[in-house]
Design goal:
transmembrane helix, 272 residues
């Protein structure tokens, strides 16, 4: 169990920290975390399946300021690990991941809003002294401390085993658990709604209607609908390129005609 706990620790540390070092590269998304965890645990199929399911659940995960609704990296790593080494069913592991992600979010908020403030006086001191080396050292030191503590949650959870985690979840009041499950079920809808709010306009409404008809009535799988959308994007892009070329030719023709008319007018004025 210690080996699996160490593996889960490094998975969470890697996926949580690298995304900030590489400029928000989405490595912390459940789909990637599930793949990496399953690959390290020796069952990539289970990791991908659970990661894909949790990606839909946490798609609507929105962090506003210092408030974090859920922490998907810890939730995904624990869910995949328990499903692989503790023979927890995938659906049970997915359901277990939702409260785990919400509980881990409280730890993240504590780290960001309370714990990391202990480094603020030292940082102010280095800034007043223009101590660039001290600022850089403190930056990377606090970086390592933060993600080490975050990854330690997964290490302790795996080392303790799935039993205490399940017991903790079972002790949660039924009304609260029902609320958590309902919130988890609504998260995919919230995620899609946020995406639609950003992308929606009258020109794209017809494509949304087309996708709805293909999935709801024709029962096409998501891959087929995505492939059809890719074809439509290529056709639209080619049409836009042709329209831009025609517009450029018309502008060039209009400009040449204007120059020719101007020259003719000047010539007529000269001889008159």
């Amino acid at each position: 169990m210690l080996t699996y706990a160490i593996i889960a620790f490094f998975v969470v540390f890697f996926c949580s920290s690298v995304t900030y070092l590489t400029g928000q590269s989405m490595i912390e998304r459940p789909l990637v975390v599930g793949l990496v965890t399953g690959l390290c645990m020796g069952d990539m199929t289970t990791g991908i399946l659970i990661g894909a399911a949790l990606e839909a659940v946490f798609m609507g995960n929105v962090n506003i300021g210092g408030v974090i609704s859920a922490e998907p990296v810890t939730a995904t790593a624990l869910a995949v690990t328990f499903a692989i080494i503790s023979n927890v069913e995938q659906q049970a592991a997915i359901t277990l991941a939702i409260p785990i992600g919400m509980l881990a979010a409280f730890v993240v908020m504590f780290l960001k809003n309370v714990f990391m403030n202990i480094f603020a006086p030292a940082l102010d001191k280095f800034a007043r002294e223009n101590n660039q080396k001290g600022i850089v050292f403190l930056h990377y030191f606090s970086f390592l401390v933060y993600f080490f503590i975050l990854a330690s949650i997964t290490f302790i959870g795996v080392l303790a085993g799935s039993g205490p985690i399940e017991q903790l979840v079972n002790n949660i009041p039924e009304a609260l658990m029902n609320g958590l499950k309902a919130a988890g079920g609504l998260l995919p809808a919230v995620g899609f709604a946020l995406l639609m709010k950003l992308l929606w306009n009258n020109k794209l409404a017809v494509f949304y209607l087309l996708g709805f008809i293909l999935t709801a009535y024709l029962k096409l799988p998501a891959v087929a609908v995505a492939a059809l959308g890719f074809v439509i994007c290529l056709v639209s892009a080619q049409r836009d390129l042709e329209l831009n070329e025609l517009r450029s030719l018309r502008q060039a023709a209009a400009s040449s005609n204007h120059v020719a008319n101007t020259d003719q007018a000047e010539e007529d004025d000269f001889f008159s």
